[in-house]
């Protein structure tokens, strides 16, 4: 059985062909498609301009005409594919649907990107950037653009959760959650490319676990109408929360307990000292004067 990277990645699959649909038949597009397939099957180190030209059916001098250098060629390959994939990702985040539904869609995108060879291409350029400063300077902004897209989606998700009255632990900022997602995903990609089956089983379990967590979060959001936590009588203002905390400092939950059970807004309201004690004390002070 052929276990070469090209066979595992499914190079030449319909997923790969869609990445260069925009200008099919154009000389530049033919070169980009041929370079993509060579990168995904043989890697950056073995990349040959002459072989790319032969695969594209063009004179190799045209590669120099269109791209000038090999590094610019591979960056343009990444851009051509990434433009389609980032637009696909952004559309998914902006579309209606629950958190679990979008997570499942992102997993399907990943499977498609592995099949197309895009994951291998990106990993090859990442590895080559370690020893090629000029390539690294061009590659990193492309990688960071994807991370920013993830961060923006997480910020929207956190805002939606808070709008339903669900409070996350203070340390669980959008930046922290986005870091977990993006760094886990990149590590998973490298493990999958190396074919580490034990890691693949663990990664699948981790993805399934987060899927279940998001399904639970969707259910909690559905149980509380959007914006319900902001209605008068059901919320406690920031000043009042501070007063409650000041009056009962020993009642503050520890960080450990906060991660397992966030006190509800109604319980915080009940914990507020009764106003009657304060009202009776004021008249007595006036009489003493």
Query: What is the rounded distance between the termini?
Result: 98 Å
N-to-C SSE string, H for helix and E for strand: HHHHHHHHHHHHHHH
Taken together, the total number of domains comes to 2
Q: Which shape, going by the Cα principal axes?
A: elongated
Query: With helices defined by DSSP (H or I, 4 residues minimum), what is the helix count?
Result: 15
Find the CATH superfamily of the largest domain: Tetracycline Repressor, domain 2
Query: Could you tell me the number of beta strands?
Result: 0
Structural class based on helices, strands and sheet pairing:
mainly alpha
From the 3D structure, determine the CATH topology of the largest domain: Tetracycline Repressor, domain 2
The rounded Rg comes to 27 Å
Name the poorly predicted regions: 1-14, 229-289
CATH class of the largest domain: Mainly Alpha
The helix fraction, in percent, is: over 70%
What is the percentage of strand-forming residues? under 5%
How many strands, which pairing sense, and closed or not: the largest β-sheet? none
Query: Kindly state the mean pLDDT as a whole number?
Result: 77
């Amino acid at each position: 059985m052929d276990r070469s990277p090209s066979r595992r990645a499914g190079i030449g699959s319909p997923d790969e062909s869609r990445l260069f649909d925009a200008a099919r038949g154009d000389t530049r597009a033919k070169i980009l498609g041929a370079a993509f397939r060579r990168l995904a099957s043989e890697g950056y180190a073995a990349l040959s301009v002459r072989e790319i030209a032969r695969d594209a059916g063009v004179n190799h001098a045209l590669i120099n005409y269109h791209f000038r250098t090999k590094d610019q060629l591979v960056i343009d390959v990444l851009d051509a594919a990434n433009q389609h994939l980032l637009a696909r990702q952004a559309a998914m985040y902006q579309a209606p649907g629950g958190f679990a539904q979008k997570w499942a869609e992102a997993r399907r995108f990943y499977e498609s990107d592995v099949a197309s060879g895009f994951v291998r291409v990106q990993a090859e350029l990442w590895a080559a950037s370690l020893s090629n400063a000029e390539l690294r300077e061009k590659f990193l902004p492309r990688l960071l653009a994807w991370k920013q897209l993830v961060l923006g989606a997480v910020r929207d998700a956190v805002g939606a959760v808070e709008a339903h009255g669900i409070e996350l632990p203070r340390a669980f900022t959008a930046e922290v959650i986005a870091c977990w997602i993006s760094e886990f995903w990149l590590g998973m990609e490298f493990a999958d490319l190396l074919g580490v089956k034990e890691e693949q089983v663990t990664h699948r379990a981790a993805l399934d676990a987060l899927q279940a967590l998001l399904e639970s979060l969707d259910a909690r959001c559905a149980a509380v109408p959007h914006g319900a936590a902001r209605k008068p009588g059901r919320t406690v203002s920031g000043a009042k929360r501070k007063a409650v905390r000041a009056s009962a400092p020993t009642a503050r939950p520890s960080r450990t307990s906060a991660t397992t059970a966030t006190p509800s807004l109604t319980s915080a309201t009940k914990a507020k000292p009764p106003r009657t004690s304060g009202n009776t004390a004021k008249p007595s002070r006036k009489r003493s004067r």
